[in-house]
Description:
This protein is mostly helical. It contains 14 helices and no strands. Helix 5 crosses helix 6.
Amino acid sequence: MLYNLLYPLAGHFFIFNLFKYLTFRTGGAMLTAMVVSFVIGPRVIRWLKEKQGEGQPIRADGPETHSKKKGTPTMGGLMILFSVTLSTILWVDITNPYMWVVLAVFLSFGIIGFFDDYAKLTKRSHNGISWRLRLFLECAISLIAVLCIMVLTAGPLGSSLAVPFLKNFFPDLGWFFVPFGIFVIVGASNAVNLTDGLDGLAIGPIMITAGCFGIFSYLTGNFNFSEYLQIHFVKDVGELAVFCGALVGAGMGFLWFNAPPAQVFMGDTGSLSMGGALGAISVATKHEIALGIIGGIFVIETLSVIIQVVSFKTRGKRVFKMAPLHHHFEKTGWAETQVVIRFWIISIIMALIGLSSLKLR
Length: 361
């Protein structure tokens, strides 16, 4: 919005020329989201405590150390939703259609997560709204988002799949790209949701992934850089870097309150919204496979649950002491902070591998 209001005045006030630069506005969005999170955080936490009483239900079959988390409020994702939305609208070019698609996915998945959290609190159970209803709503929102992105992306690139490390391989999936895109968005959302189980665990890889996709968005939306790096060019998608910057800033602000011992949990309100947004950005920038690499920790956590369920149903045996994987390591004796920091290290390594695909082609 500031871009649309102030940049036209650059001819009269040279300082407003700064708003022309995407990097400046991305930095502005990051700083704004972080400051807003710091400011509203204590108030949101107090309000959540007053409304929730006993806080998020703690799994009875979880690690014994989790009993100390009793009374910690959930739905902290509300502060992320507010700070990211406010910062994005403030610093982005509001005429950019990609931004509105991603923001719609972000807020819609946040609403689904909110009602899921609310159901868990009222039932005092880990079972929120029906998983069938939740999946249906996620798929419906993702369907609309994927179709919008396909329309916005010019030419056959809209339904094509870019493969990392291969510069001239763009298989056109045709209409099969629709279910593929839905799978990416819904899968990313629920993968982040599964990873959110320890203080600070999910928000770290989210910030790392958002930072990487800020770079992807900027380079993919810049014709000169995309030509130099020999990656595909997607017109107007660069503005998503502003959203990614806001996500990183809000994540830093939230981590201040979510660091062990957490004062608040993000809940499904935060995990579903941020995961869905990252999935939508990967579809818009045509870096869906790169999301699986950079967000590898989310993939690993999801696979651990799938392997555990399949193994128990087919063999009657569990592969892990507990799933998702972070609980397995807790059960083996790792301290919570050890699990969190080591998973962050893995996320950084995966991010570096994903970023290397920009040049290794």
